[in-house]
């Protein structure tokens, strides 16, 4: 199995929800070396990220990321990815072996330009129905994240450039979904990232 060396450049568009997540519910999903960041008492910041990476990307695939919260370790902070799903075997291998991410295979069904369903076999993980944006604002930002690989803690940067829009959406997460306990259907808002250019940097190992 072959995959590109880091960094990976990923181009397409993405949908992102943001919300508070109960620290007690995410603690079992986060390795003990990490301290959970709570911007609000007993709450951390999490959400759902669904994307499609198209022509011009290091690999072309679809992706669902469950961000369970913000964490800190050895003076660094970043998002903790508790669940991550893609529909490309090379992406699974690269994600696990380069960044220490728990990637799994899943199926993505995009219906027109307003709905996406992610499933594994007959089990639906989540479904997101959304509206198209009516305006956008160019934005660049860097979002750090962690990986965990055979006891090694990895830290890396995600460099985003996109046109940002605020849209309406509805998230459905069946009780059978493994991340149902996080209550990720209680989000504040949904962001649409169009003309997305994401660079996922080579990670470094933290002591």
> What share of residues is helical?
under 10%
Structural class: mainly beta
* SSE pattern, N- to C-terminal: EHEEEEHEEEEEEEEE
Largest pleated sheet:
7 strands, mixed, barrel
Assembly type:
single chain
Low-confidence stretches: none
Termini separation comes to 30 Å
Q: How would you write the strand order of the largest sheet?
A: 1-3-4-5-10-11-13
Percent strand equals over 45%
Radius of gyration: 16 Å
According to CATH, the fold-level topology is: Acetoacetate decarboxylase-like
Mean pLDDT level = 97
Outline type: globular
The total number of structural domains is 1
| The CATH architecture | Beta Barrel
Counting DSSP E segments of at least 2 residues, the number of strands comes to: 14
Could you walk me through the main structural features you see in this protein, from its secondary elements to its overall organization?
It is a single chain. This protein has 207 residues and is mainly β. The protein has two helices and 14 strands; from the N terminus they run βαββββαβββββββββ. The strands form two sheets. The protein has a seven-stranded mixed beta barrel. The chain starts with 7 loop residues before the first strand and ends with a strand. Pfam families: ADC. InterPro entries: Acetoacetate_decarboxylase (IPR010451), ADC_dom_sf (IPR023375), NDX1-like (IPR039343). GO terms for molecular function: lyase activity. This is Acetoacetate decarboxylase family protein.
């Amino acid at each position: 199995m072959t995959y590109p060396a880091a960094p990976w450049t990923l181009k397409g568009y993405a949908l992102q929800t943001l919300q508070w997540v109960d620290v007690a519910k995410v603690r079992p999903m986060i390795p003990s070396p990490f301290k959970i960041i709570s911007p609000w008492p007993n709450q951390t910041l999490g959400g759902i990220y669904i994307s499609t990476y198209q022509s011009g990307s290091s690999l072309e695939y679809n992706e669902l990321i469950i961000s369970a919260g913000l964490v800190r370790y050895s003076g660094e902070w970043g998002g903790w990815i508790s669940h991550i799903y893609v529909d490309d075997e090379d992406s699974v291998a690269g994600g696990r072996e380069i960044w220490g991410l728990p990637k799994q295979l899943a199926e993505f069904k995009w219906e027109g330009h307003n709905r996406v369903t992610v499933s594994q076999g007959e089990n639906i993980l989540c479904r997101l129905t959304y509206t198209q944006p009516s305006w956008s604002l160019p934005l660049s930002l860097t979002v750090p994240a962690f990986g965990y690989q055979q006891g090694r803690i990895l830290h890396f940067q995600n460099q985003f450039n996109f046109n940002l829009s605020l849209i309406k959406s509805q998230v459905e997460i069946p009780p059978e979904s493994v991340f149902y306990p996080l209550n990720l259907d209680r989000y504040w808002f949904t962001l649409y990232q169009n003309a997305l250019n994401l660079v996922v940097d080579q990670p470094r190992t933290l002591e």
